[in-house]
Design goal:
There is one protein chain. This protein has about 400 residues and is α/β, with parallel strands linked by helices. It has one domain (about 5-30, about 120-390): Alkaline Phosphatase, subunit A. It has 14 helices and 14 strands. It has helices at about 5, 20-25, 70-80, 95-100, 105-110, 125-135, 150-160, 180-185, 205, 220-225, 260-275, 320-325, 360-370, 380-385, and strands at about 10-15, 45, 50-55, 135-140, 140, 190-195, 215, 235, 245, 250, 285-290, 340-345, 350-355, 355-360. It has an eight-stranded mixed beta sheet with strand order 7-6-8-1-11-12-4-13, with helices on both faces. Helix 3 crosses helix 4 (about 95-100). The longest helix has 16 residues, at about 260-275. The relative contact order is 0.22.
Length: about 400
């Protein structure tokens, strides 16, 4: 067993909100050719038929107003540019057109969904982009379905969204248990850390069913790091809204949702990374995954994949009234590509992972590590066949050149 895998005691996942890969990291390709980003020649049509170049003009806050739609029907249009034919293929050309058609009638402003951040200059993302290039970036991590937040996050917790493709709040009556329930039953430890009571958790309805032990606050996470008492598996949710703390101090939303300041999210990422990195007892045996739940209606150039039939759970079908496209959805293709990176002193720096991943890979990997003999009949086919990422802890010697953030 590689020494990094042998040392692994904790897996930590931070899931942020509503950004595509190209929007956040596409700029990296020029200096880091291993990143499957933008080459500078990409362009997509707007509502006038003009071809709009993908430009590095993204701003930290206030540019994406109104918030681009990312419901199932809108994402379907973004991917296929409105084509509904049986033989259609993903062109990734519909982002600007559907934004202008549905929400932003001003044509120049509709182009904002195709803007990206830069690697150099005033609109770069030094924390996220440094982690992506100093550790391992996933070139092909996709949202689990072409739809919004809740159904995609369900895949991270259950390996399925159980027929759901929307933002309806749902209980999950299924034989498939959450990763937290599985770990508890196996005598392992896990916790979902939400930011605080005001921010709350997007997962309370589905996971809180008399299982308060599964939840903690972000401060609890920080305290557990300092005390070397992290659970085997930790899932971190950011602060979803600007609000005052108990002393009246303003806490900025850190989720990086398009209506919030991306820089607050940068600070949040750095806090988590530094808390692990600077603890000599924690850093050698912790694997950190940073990933986004879905793309938020923002441009990405990589076509969304169709799944092999062997990965499709036949019992789950979203009907036309749920998809709002006039067609059912068989959970047989993935959503838009999102940023994801794997961080550990045992991960090769400057590497790019070419294999295909999605959010079902999260419970699949955690199960592989902590419950290796788990009965596959108690989880979805989708999860049981998802790629896992433990194999990227490849180094024979722990790195000492990992970055710190002030």
């Amino acid at each position: 067993m590689p020494p990094g895998l042998d040392a692994l005691r904790h897996i930590v996942v931070l899931m942020l909100e509503n950004r595509s890969f190209d929007h956040m990291l596409g700029c990296l390709k020029t200096k880091h050719p291993q990143v499957d980003g933008l080459n500078g020649t990409e362009a997509i049509p707007d509502s006038t038929g003009a071809m709009v170049p993908i430009q590095q003009l993204a701003e930290f806050r206030g540019q994406l107003l109104p918030d681009p739609h990312h419901d199932f029907a809108s994402v379907d249009y973004q991917i296929f540019n409105g084509d509904t034919s049986p033989t259609r293929t993903p062109t990734m050309d519909g982002f600007i057109r559907i934004y202008q058609k549905q929400q932003q009638p001003d044509v120049p402003s509709s182009h904002h969904v195709a803007f990206t951040f830069s690697e150099d200059g005033a609109n770069n993302l030094p924390v996220l982009q440094t982690l992506a290039t100093e550790f391992a970036v996933f070139n092909r991590w996709f949202a689990s379905i072409p739809g919004p937040t809740l159904c995609n996050r369900a895949f991270a917790h259950y390996g399925s969204s159980f027929n759901n493709v929307g933002m309806n709040v749902f209980y999950i009556p299924s034989r498939f248990k959450s990763i937290y329930e599985r770990l508890t039953a196996a005598g392992r430890t896990s916790k979902l850390f939400y930011y605080d009571a005001t921010s709350s958790s997007l997962e309370v309805v589905n996971l809180l069913q008399n299982e308060q032990v599964m939840f903690g606050t972000f401060q609890n996470f920080l305290d557990a790091c300092d005390a070397n008492q992290l659970p085997d598996y930790s899932f971190i949710e950011p602060n979803y809204k600007d609000h005052a703390d108990s002393n009246g101090a303003m806490l900025l939303a850190t989720d990086q949702h398009p209506d919030n300041d991306v820089r607050a999210g940068e600070d949040f990422i750095a806090t988590i990374y530094n808390r692990i990195r600077n603890n000599a007892n924690l850093w050698p045996n912790t694997l950190l995954l940073i990933v986004y739940d879905e793309h938020g209606g923002l441009y990405d150039h990589v076509p969304t994949p169709t799944l092999d039939k062997s990965r499709v759970d036949p019992e789950f079908v979203a009907q036309p009234d749920a998809t709002q496209t006039g067609q059912p959805f068989y959970f047989d293709r993935l959503g838009v590509r999102v940023p994801a990176m794997l961080i550990s002193p045992w991960v090769q720096g400057g590497s790019a992972i070419p294999d295909e991943f999605e959010h079902a890979s999260i419970p699949a990997t955690v199960t592989e590590r902590f419950i290796p003999n788990f009965d596959n009949r108690q989880r979805s086919i989708r999860e049981a066949t998802a790629n896992t990422f433990l194999q990227y802890l490849t180094l024979d010697t722990m790195r000492t050149d990992c970055p710190d953030f002030d």
